[in-house]
Write a structure and sequence with these properties.
CATH superfamily of the largest domain: Gcn5-related N-acetyltransferase (GNAT)
Radius of gyration: 19 Å
Number of strands: 12
InterPro entries: Acyl_CoA_acyltransferase (IPR016181), GNAT_dom (IPR000182)
Shape: globular
Low-confidence stretches: none
Pfam families: Acetyltransf_1
GO molecular function: acyltransferase activity, transferring groups other than amino-acyl groups
Distance between the termini: 25 Å
CATH architecture of the largest domain: 3-Layer(aba) Sandwich
Number of domains: 2
CATH class of the largest domain: Alpha Beta
Domain N-acetyltransferase: 1-158, 155-301
Bound molecules: coenzyme A
Protein name: GNAT superfamily N-acetyltransferase
Largest sheet: 12 strands, mixed
CATH topology of the largest domain: Aminopeptidase
Order of helices and strands: EHHEEEHEHEEHHEEEHEHE
């Protein structure tokens, strides 16, 4: 049975996401906050698939948050491995696609694991990998990363505990649109960001770092963490264009990962566009190992 998700499902939804996509670090409270903080204009629907009273699949479908492209929507579905091959994922996807079509979307995108069976399944539903964009998910044990590179004397590192949210928002707004993603990117409004990012109970402020050049914020890295399972996810790292190539991304990430290790994190995940050469260079240097590849698939509606 496919139905709308409700608050009582959040424990099972979180467990399911943790099993299928362990890098999507989210506690139950984090998942609840993600649902509640979603801007109305995204018209997001969360769906679940239930078999004999057990929640075995989950999907979300709504307008894309981070691109100004008109009519862009995101659709995602996941099914527990032991329940695959029974049409549950297809039923979720069909429902999700119908929803985004109904709210006026003209393009739907999703991210499929780079596995032949999954890509064939997406193709059967009209989703093609034609754009050729992929995201690499990778993981490192933060206790084993290299020591910090020398930090220029005029640069000072502070954690998110010591900065105003506006500082982080402005860094994200200035650097986020430079992420190679296959679609144009644009910042979401500050009020929405406050709810979704700053208000996320899983935001690990002590393990998120801003680099200040004098008093000017110039680079940052943002970590979400589930300390109960020792996992973290670097949601974003950015350096202002004026300060790129100076080692600042390395410096803020090393600091954040050392802080994460001290807090008990043993698996620090991140995801990068496969063409993001500078970020991949930083992460390779840190010792990240590939954990999964996700291919962007898209269809017209
Ligand atoms: C990715 C980003 C954070 C890097 O910031 P930075 O402060 O310039 O990074 P660093 O100076 O610490 O390191 C950059 C590394 O990339 C390497 N590099 C730069 N351009 C490169 C290229 N085209 N190909 C390969 N390597 C490249 C540099 O040589 C350096 O590696 P090295 O120190 O081993 O020589 C910055 O480019 C940025 O803000 N981009 C937009 C936002 C983004 O894409 N964030 C990542 C989202 S997942």
């Amino acid at each position: 049975m496919i139905r709308e998700a409700r608050d009582a499902d959040l424990v099972e939804i979180t467990a399911l996401r943790n099993e299928v996509m362990p890098y999507l670090v989210s506690s139950v409270e984090g998942t609840r906050a993600a649902v509640n903080a979603m801007p109305e204009w995204a018209k997001l629907r969360w769906l679940v698939a239930e078999v004999d009273g057990r929640l075995v699949g989950w999907a979300r479908a709504g307008l894309s948050l981070f691109t100004p492209e008109p009519g862009a929507a995101d659709v995602g579905a996941a099914v527990l491995p032991e329940y695959r091959g029974r049409g549950i994922g297809s039923a979720l996807l069909v429902e999700g696609v119908a929803h985004v079509k109904q709210i006026g979307a003209v393009t739907a995108r999703g991210r499929a694991f780079d596995e032949p069976g999954i890509l064939r399944w997406a193709e059967r539903h009209g989703f093609a990998a034609g754009a050729g964009h992929a995201a690499q998910i990778s993981v490192v044990d933060p206790r084993a990363i290299p020591g910090a590179p020398a930090c220029p004397g005029h640069i000072r590192l502070v954690s998110f505990d010591e900065v105003d949210p506006r500082v982080v928002y402005d860094l994200e707004a200035a650097t986020g649109p430079d992420i190679p993603a296959g679609v144009p990117l644009a910042p979401i409004p500050y009020e929405d960001w406050l709810g979704m990012t700053w208000g996320n109970p899983d935001l690990f402020r002590g393990g998120s770092v801003v680099a200040l050049d004098g008093d000017v914020p110039v680079a940052y890295t943002l970590t979400v963490a589930d300390l109960s399972t020792g996992r973290s996810w670097t949601n974003m790292t950015g350096t202002l264009r004026s300060h790129r190539g100076l080692g600042l991304a390395k410096i803020v990430k090393v600091e954040a990962l050392h802080r994460s290790a001290r807090a008990g994190i043993t698996r620090a995940y991140t995801g990068n566009d496969a063409t993001n050469a500078p970020m991949l260079a930083v992460n390779d240097w840190l010792g990240y190992q590939r954990a999964a590849t996700q291919v962007t698939v898209a269809r017209k509606l």
